[in-house]
């Protein structure tokens, strides 16, 4: 019996040490409420030549809003809030590095998330948020996917801190 209790205590310490925590059933409060509000993503405008970008942004924003329990996705008719996303800057530049002439690339993505109420009044805007990364000889699509994921998280971090 003593060994079972000791094992249970050790398991609790190990779970706490690795960062595990029990999620509560309530969401974090934001300018649009506590997670019960209905949200619709109406538009994703972007400036890149990659046709997959709007779909990838949509998937990432949906996943992150769901993960953080910020709102519930719904149809436009039932929405209390409308989200619009703009990706105005999507750049890649390359420079040669060192005597081995390896290409050192820099990629950057900028995004703006705006949320409107159902009457069309602006409720919140992330402002322009950008991320960039330097990399050597990597598939640029993978780099852009990573940057999109990071910029989506930064935008939603800002939504959660401004209330």
Describe the 3D structure.
- It is built from three helices and six strands; from the N terminus they run αβαβββββα.
- By secondary structure, it is α/β, with parallel strands linked by helices.
- The protein has one domain: Lipoprotein like domain (Double Stranded RNA Binding Domain), CATH 3.30.160.150.
- Strand 4 and strand 5 form a beta hairpin.
- The radius of gyration is 21 Å and the shape is flat.
- It starts with a helix and ends with a helix.
- The mean pLDDT is 84.
Q: Given the C-alpha coordinates, what overall shape results?
A: flat
Q: What does the main sheet amount to?
A: 6 strands, mixed
Oligomer: single chain
Helix/strand/pairing class, anyone?
Answer: alpha/beta
Distance between termini?
50 Å
- How large is the share of residues in beta strands? 25-35%
The number of helices is 3
Search tags:
single chain; about 160 residues; alpha/beta; Double Stranded RNA Binding Domain; six-stranded mixed beta sheet; 3 helices; 6 strands; flat
Q: How do the strands and helices of this protein lay out in sequence?
A:
Layout: H1 2-17, E1 38-46, H2 53-68, E2 72-73, E3 81-97, E4 102-117, E5 122-125, E6 129-136, H3 140-161
Parallel strand pairs: 1-2, 1-3
Antiparallel strand pairs: 3-4, 4-5, 4-6
Helix pairs in contact: 2-3
Summarize the structure.
This protein is 33% helix and 34% strand. It has 163 residues and is of the alpha/beta class. It has a single domain, classed as Double Stranded RNA Binding Domain (2-Layer Sandwich).
């Amino acid at each position: 019996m003593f060994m079972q209790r000791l094992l249970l205590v050790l398991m609790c310490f190990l779970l706490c040490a690795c960062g595990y925590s029990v999620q509560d059933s309530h969401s974090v409060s934001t300018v649009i409420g506590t997670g019960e509000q209905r949200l619709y993503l109406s538009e994703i405008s972007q400036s890149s030549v990659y046709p997959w970008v709007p779909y990838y942004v949509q998937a990432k924003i949906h996943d992150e809003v769901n993960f953080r329990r910020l709102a519930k996705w719904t149809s436009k008719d039932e929405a209390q809030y409308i989200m619009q996303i703009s990706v105005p800057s999507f750049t890649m530049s390359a420079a040669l590095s060192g005597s081995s002439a390896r290409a050192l690339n820099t990629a950057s993505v900028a995004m703006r998330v705006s949320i409107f109420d159902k009457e069309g009044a602006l409720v919140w805007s992330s402002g322009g948020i950008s991320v960039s990364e330097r990399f050597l000889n990597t598939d640029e699509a993978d780099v852009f996917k990573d940057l999109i994921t990071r910029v989506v998280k930064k935008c939603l971090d800002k939504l959660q801190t401004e209330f």
